Amino acid sequence: MSLQTQPAKKGFYAKPLTVACMVAIGTNSVAGYAETGAQAQSASSERVKVSSYLYNYYWDLINRRYYNPAPTPAPAPTPIPAPVRPAPAPVAPMPTPAPTPAPVESTVSGRYVAPVASSEVKRNNYTRQVQSHLKRSQPAPSAGTRTGYSVMDTSNNSDLTSKFYGATEDGYAQRLDNLKNTIDTRRAKVGVIDTGINRFNRDMVGANVHDTQVKCVSAGRSSCYDPHNDSGIVETSTTSASGDHGNQMAAVIAGNNGMTNAKIYGSDSIDRGSNGGNQFLMMRKLNQDHGVKIFNNSWGSDNSDRWFYDAQRLNYDPNTGNIYPNRYRTSITNAEVTLPVIHDLIMNRDALIIKATGNEGLNDAHDENLAPLMNSEFKKGFITVSSPREDFNQANDCGRTAEWCVSATSSTENYANNGRLSNYKGTSPATARVAGTAVLVQSAYPWMKNENISQTILGTAKDFSEITANSPNGYKGLRRVSRLPSGYYGRYYTDNRGNLYIPGDTPWENRQIIANHNGKNITWQDGWGLLDPEAAAKGYGGFYWDNVELDTQGTPLSVFYNDLKGDKGFTKKGAGKLVFTGNNSYKGNSIIEGGSLEINGNNGGSTMVVKGGELTGHGSVANVHQTGGWVNNEGNLRIRGNYNINTNRGADAGLKAQFGNMITVDGKARLGGTLNLTGETKDGIISQSGSRSTVLRAKQGLENRFDSHRSSNPLFEVTKVEYTPEVDRNGRVVGNSRVNNDVQVTARRLSAGNVVYGIGMNNSGSRVAQNLDKVLNDLDEKQAVQGSLTSDEKRFANQVFSSFENMSADYGNNTASPMLSVVSTNQELYKLDPTFYADSALNVVEDSAVHATDFGKRLKDGRNVWGSVSHHDYDVDMAHATSERKGNTYTVGASTQTANDVSVGAQLDVSDLDLKESVYGISNKTQTDSIGLTVGASKNVGDAYVSGWVKGAKVETKANRAEMTDDIKYDGKLYGVGIQVGKNIDTASGVSVQPYAFANHQKYKNDGDINDGMNIITDISAKQTQVGVGTDVAFQATPALQLTAGVQVAHAVSRDTSLDTRYVGTATDVQYGTWDTDKTKWSAKVGANYNVTPNSQVGLNYSYTGSGDSDASQVGVSFTSKF
């Protein structure tokens, strides 16, 4: 078996360019190719009985409406003062150091809630999981291939996959498959600048291939080489390609068994069968027309420095991208075309250009790969790609491009356009593997710019020195020998140069470290190291660059899972939360200017500089220096050094304190700014009578005080902030220390009803607030008597507290008194509101009344059968809320006449009713199916009639509550009874007038309890008694055509809808009603009936119904036949 290599064909500029691959010829040859590859107890035994709910309600109301608390108020008075322990004997003052420590305050009051241990604080689980919907959406992989198409071990008779990635060839392919089913890459776009895409290639079938690709078809004045005139670059179909290479690269990136599911945008511009064109203009075209930003360039030119030399003579301005070539030049060089375009792509269009170094076995990279030497800012969006020579021994080294170069595995097997598996090597598939990794990174972190993606790929690359250290004896592979050893009888291989190889332990390539780039070694051969797609998909691997900006604007949550290293730091900007889960050792400052940074591991020696946004987390940091923004104690963050708050007085910045959580400072804490109580954690609840907890503890002491305090949660009021020596879990000062270590907050809960008083709310908002007060007051009483609450009770209380925290809009000029947002107040209350269940029941009752009235009219007509289909839309527009109701009803019925002129009949109604209620974008929905039977009788007395009926129906409902994923199903029953009287008046003009009056009563009741995760509903009851009058008019326009019209007014003389429920985890029964909609409705209708036989007719009708707050329309078709 011979080891075949072929030198790549060379081309330059306008000539067809070479692809950076080497294809094996013999079927038995070893092939090379490139691949992408307690509960705290009270401090006092005395318990003070809580004042009555009514007293507290009015006290809170008076306090909120007529008193404006100062930034640091005195403790709020209570109706019945609690006994206070005598103050201890005075302590002799200590010498006052500079700065002045906070005075010792050892007299503490209020029921103490001990901070929750860090091990018990609930943490979010940020672990990524394989997503079943992504798994289901995967295209069928091409036969005989593995994910990523890598055959490094098979091709080299080696164990390199195990040495590089710790798995077998198949095992690593499975890991790549899991990776692409963890991160949704379907919206990503990638440009493949190559020999074109043929969507019928076996690896492209089922892949996400764009319908068109760009190609040069220049003719006349159109051009494919002029930056100012690229009109020759046009869109063509992806049904053919000038070569195999483009499909094979696209397959590695995003084929049906590729690394990702990105959409592929091709360019047919490299192979000799194409019409050529400038590759960078092709990229610009795809960016302009389709927004593509990641570009795979598995091609090369002549592997010389000609491009670089030409570029240096263009008088290029790196600030503007303009060039000023010698006007006396005799020809236009390729650099003159491409350099401004490269500048535009990287600096203005956020493009990431990924390009192969080549396959000539050179010790350096050349051509356009040297572009960042013209402008160091190009490193933001330019990655060159080599391949480890253990896999492909003809890969060109990174060389002068090492600072923006990475190495990736080469050996690949996928399909050529002729349908045959092709086994090949080269830096081409290595480049494609880097492009696939870039797609994964971009999809995992949509906020990342080209620079962030590039730094992520480079910073997570594996260090070859670590790989070799783990396997000092080398790897299993093909070892080059000058001649076969004496007595050797094993297999041997030769390449096309006559070199001899035998299997065996093979030493690692020698790699030359040329620089330590701020904590990471860079080698001449492989740049930053070996590509690691899995690590790159987990975010940055370290901070090795100056001025790293992590601007997460537009992405609510991002998580970096790696242990972050490097000598530099970063600046966090933009809205959105960024989470670090690793144990980090990077040394530079962590500057927070926007959004939130959550530290959940040990963050080593980096100083947190908080200028804006928020620092939070469950882990530890070295030191915190705060000049703005917030530090949040919600995760029991630990500061191993000192905490210094140095905000401007009056600035809205400082410490966010959650009751029951505590920041621990191993050193000193220098206080200032605002202490802002936001909520509380799981252990105990803030009661109306007041509770106390430690929110910060500095082991080496406190200096200064907070400038002010407040609660951004409108449900809480901070009544006191105390600075004391360390206290135990019962709130008692430990020992005789004279150093203040603890910041203790005393707060009380206000009445929810008072808090939202005066805010414009939807119909049931105030009822929700009153019921929440009722439940929370019962929890207060239980906590006072029993000393503890269940975990479910605490979970409910904290859910309520979180809802009120979300209601705050801003603080205006008074930071002590948060203003409520009308929108968020309505939203948060509606999330806790089960009223829509009752509204859905009333919807069933009202719909049933409409069809029962129609039945009463049909009974008077004697012997006949009928059927109808109708659809209605019913919209209710209320203050701060809307209700959309849609329904379809299918009716069949029949009546007959007895000997004594009495008509009896029955009607079967089948209805489906959809209800959607919304409060500022928060929606609850129900889908109700009912089947009902109505039976009745009618007696004609001359031209008049009187009808009566009874009805029963089975009702099945499926409900979906806002922010809950599972539907809730429940059943119910409906009963009704009614009477109707009317008269038929025929006029000489052929018009028939039929006045009528009616009265009916409908009742709905559910079967069994309903548990939707928020409420346990024990009873839903909807009753309505309705009376009405109306007149129908019919005109016989022709013997076969009858025109109809009518008007009706109906009024609900009584309506009683109730819903009995408990909130999950609580024992307090509360009741809700329904939204108070208008009880009077008027309607008008028009229609036409056509006799298809003397006794049968079909009809079409339309009606409109209105009220003070609703509009409804109905359209229906009907069939009637008399017998």
TrEMBL record:
Residues 144-154 have a biased composition (Polar residues). Residues 858-1123 form the Autotransporter domain. It is an enzyme of class 3 (hydrolase). Coiled coil: none annotated. Residues 128-154 are annotated as: Disordered. Pfam families: Autotransporter, PATR, Peptidase_S8. This is Extracellular serine protease. The active site is at residues 194, 245, 428. GO terms for molecular function: serine-type endopeptidase activity. Keywords: Hydrolase, Protease, Serine protease, Signal.
